[in-house]
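Entry type: protein chain
Record version: 2
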Amino acid sequence: MAKVMKSESSVDRISALPDEVLIRILSLLPTKIAVLTSVLSSRWRYLFTSISRLKFDADVKNDAKKAKLFMNFIDRVLFFRHRDRPSIVKFCLSWDAFIDPLRIDGWLRALMFHNIQELYLHNTDDQFEALPFPASLFSCETLEILKFNLWVSHDLQVPARICLPKLKVLEIEGIGFPDDGSVERLFSSCPVLEDLVLYGCRFGDHYSKFSISNPSLKRLTLDFRNTDEPDLIVQIIVNAPSLVYLDYCFTTDYSLVLADVSSRAKAVIKSESIFAEDFYPVAPDVFRGMRNIQSLEITNYILYGLWYQKIPLPWLENMNDLKICQWNINFGSDCLEYLLTHCVVLKKLVLEGYPTIKGTGINYSLKRSSLSPLLSHLKTIEIQSFGMEAESHMETIKFFLNNATILEELTICIKLILPEQQLKIMKELLTLQRASNKCQVIIDIQNSLLNF
């Protein structure tokens, strides 16, 4: 009996599973571990060559010997793979130092051979040499996602022939754009492109206009911080009639022109601290194209710059949602009035800011009676910065309650206020008159909701 039990326990049940199951198991393991299973037995020797998702992270720490072993390892994985194996769905490569660009070029060519669908390249070596992308990368008919984070000093070289019929996501970070129009041609040559991200990209010295034109583009992220300042202000012109989401980091070196965007679009315009005096050269172009957007999220720095420079704004005839981030009532209310006078159909307003800022004690609350007709569509208000300037905030709340005639919900987030002050605020809110008999006031105290 003992012999029978021993015999049954020694059976390798895992190896007896079908190839499809074993390959699925291997695909759930880190690529390095999956490849190591090839030494288990002849049954496992070549199973790793059918893995469809590969991830390689070279953490060689300036060790040339480790780098060589790492490169040889990738060679083995890619070049041992036969053409009859399943296509490579996803390939991720991250490296820091001592990685030969020509070896990367060879790996990319192998990936094209195996019908790569998702390609991710990430360089963390600031001394890395130029990476020569093979021309076949720009004519890969199976590629759907392409993301490269390079941070190299050279420009992106785009061949004359571009054929990326399935590319939906393109993310480019840390590389230069030559002033020959090739990168612009890349964007317009992707017939199903939906997501485009440009971060930390540099423009040639002679660039004055840069066009992003694609009829299928739905989401666009632009952030040109952490780059050398261009000699000229670069005007970025966006023609994207299907665009539904724009995330733009406002800088004074670039001017954004929304020539053609969808009326359903949401725009997030953010900024670090910028001197208000620097807004005028570029701000009018940015906001002139906002007339068709449906939702806007901006920072208080931008709001202040708009008001301080009296930037001409269009009538925002489609804007339903407005969110002000980094809101500070001590220098934000007059600015908010200036923007609200252009929002003729606003339905939702969110003020998200700093509850810890203690200001001058001067009341900067909303007060202009001319705003009252513009609040006739407002249904939802959230004030997420109710803190030490409670008195000024209370005046702003009174204004909204008295003038928003169809207001349905007012949410107030109270933070960093003593319990006795909280009780005083709630009692005062109960006594406030409301122009809308449907209005419900919701108080959020440390994530505990009170409705009345």
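Comment: DSSP finds eleven helices and 21 strands in the chain.
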